[in-house]
Design goal:
With 109 residues, the chain is an all-alpha fold. It has four helices and no strands. 75% of the residues lie in helices and 0% in strands. Helix 2 runs antiparallel to helix 3. It starts with a helix and ends in a 7-residue tail after the last helix.
Length: 109
Amino acid sequence: MTDRFGDTVGRKAIRRLRARHRRDSGWYWLGMLGVIGWSVAVPTVIGVLLGLWLDREAPTGFSWVLSLLVVGLALGIFNAWYWVRQESEEPPFEADEESATTTEGPHDR
């Protein structure tokens, strides 16, 4: 009884993990596009707002807005690149369902 329950739970867990990382879905790519957009937009907007505040509070010979816009944009692009790189790696659970059901757990020893 316990082995059958463990096998069922193992198969369902693997199925759920595989479904979570399906890359052939349009929703997956739409979500990825949104994440990339926000990961670039947020640091850029923060850089611009901080630059506007610094231009008012500490005026200098150069524009804080332009400088921090470039810094925020660079950070956002790096963030998006890192996110895409993480998502494009293969998931660590590539074992098939049969191997998951034949492994013995700590209670089987």
